[in-house]
Amino acid sequence: MDLTFLIASAVKVLIVLGFVLLGVPLIVWMERKVIGHMQDRIGPQRVGPFGLLQTIADGIKLFFKEDIIPSGADRVVFIIAPALPVITAFLALAVVPFGDTVHIAGHAIPLQVTDVNIALLWILGTTSMGVYGIVLGGWASNSKYPLLGGLRSSAQMISYELAQGISLVSVIVFTGTLSLASIVQQQEHLWFILYPTLFLSFVIYLLCGIAETNRAPFDLAEAETELVAGFHTEFSSMKFALYFLAEYANMMVVSGIAISVFFGGWRGPFLPPVVWFLIKLSLFLFFYVWLRATFPRLRYDQLMAFGWKVLLPASLLNLVITALWVGLTG
Amino acid sequence: MLEPILFTLFSIIAIVFAFNVIFRRNAVHCALHLVGVLLSLSGMFVLLNAPFIAAIQILIYAGAIMVLFLFVVMLLNVKGDAALLTPGGWKGFGFFFALIMFVELLYVVLSQGGTEGTPAQTIALPPGFGSPAEIGRILYSTWLFPFEVTSILLLIAVIGAVVLAKRKFA
After folding, report:
1. A196 within 8 A of A241, measured Cβ to Cβ
2. Given A125, A154, A161, which is nearest B55 (Cβ)?
3. How do residues A91-112 score in pLDDT, each as one tens digit?
4. Cα(A260)–Cα(A209) distance, integer angstroms
5. Where would you tag: which of A68, A165, A257, A258 has the fewest CB atoms within 10 A of its CB?
6. Nearest CA to A217 among A117, A300, A284?
7. A9 vs A127: CA distance, rounded Å
């Protein structure tokens, strides 16, 4: 473990951290602007050019808001809970490759915080840990709507994790590796999305990813019409901001993994790899926003039935077909 | 160099959290400390060159099973009023067996490695040790029968749970 490795790792960690922290206000701005236009409004436009600084201003406002802890709340858990989903999102981002290996002063530095040989399992593990932030936030508030929202969303996340994991297993069977760097490496000539069985995995993965991040139309955790704001009803100030940050950081995680596994990662012609990664990431995030503007929220029983009776069998069937295909073609 | 430090760190965390699992009054706090124990155990698996087991430990135990534990604890709203360290017949019984277990474990640990006060001899690991591929190969060749028996056991448990849940309590 030499010094250059340490420095390179530290710089990469800072880059990813800074990118997410600066990227999230931009995504929120993009979301408000796009949904505004889709609903025939103009969205934020007062603060800064095109309203670009609106979300920054909102962030500063949240920072200075009074931090309220409900009197019946479990104080320690209430304080820890909002940090958990943010931590797990950053941990998951650590294995996403965002560019090719670069050579700086004779050192080969892969543009990825760390390439572990169990990357896909690592990602599934961290996302499964992210459930705690929500279920504990709901419980620690000592209030009925947050508790219901927290339980609901953790049931949802556990149910969809299964199908998500199995859809990624098809990819593992196909590639024979769990490392995201080598999965990207194998897509040098053809993106995995273009293989029929892996296309189905991608569809299942994406649907589960949307459910995992609690985004519309699967945002049952914060169904305003029935649960006030779900698990984060009682959270104010930076605690609320952390949940907000976690939601968008998790969208980046899901998109980053979908890009690396199915869309060739940072690969693309002409432009530098990092730019390609950012283009693909923006398209994915736009897709998220587009979905939110298009679909109404599902009912809870529909959501669970869809997860268990459609996505899970479909992902299992897909796994069997992929395994047969790999076994027969070699 | 780094390994003993990390091992000590993970052990201390695991032990402190394990004590908290037992001695905390609030059942939810107990469950959370158990998650901490499982996470530090997963760190130890990484130190033991078993990254796959470590990941599975997080994914299955910390990520899935403990969430369900939490669910049950939260929904039942268990009140942890009874103090643990009070004298009582059944508790004394429990402590007695815990003590026997502890002595037994201590004997096993001390008789295996630490007799000379020297660390156990390091064995060169076979290539691919602890990797998902190697574990899969062993699981589907040498240990195929136990593996399949376990899967049947789990299937029975799943069917049993469904049958129990579906039964009409008239």
Report:
1. no
2. A125
3. 888 888 887 777 776 667 777 7
4. 14
5. A68
6. A300
7. 23
- Sign (positive or negative) of CA dihedral A291, A296, A297, A301: negative
The predicted model scores a pTM of: 0.82
Paired tokens of A57: 């201003």
Summarised one tens digit per residue, pLDDT across range A215-268 is 778 777 676 667 777 777 778 888 888 888 888 888 888 898 888 888 887 777
Give Dmax (Cα) for chain A.
63
**Which residue from A123, A298, A309, A147 is spatially nearest to A215, judged by alpha carbons?**
A298
Structure tokens at A203: 């569809």
Q: Can you tell me the distance from the alpha carbon of A220 to that of A224, in angstroms, rounded to the nearest whole number?
A: 9
- Chain B CB contacts of A308 below 8 Å: none
Length of chain A: 330
Contact between A129 and B63 (Cβ < 8 Å): yes
A:B CB pairs within 8 Å: 66
Give one word for A299, left, alpha or beta, with left for phi > 0 and alpha for psi -120 to 50: beta
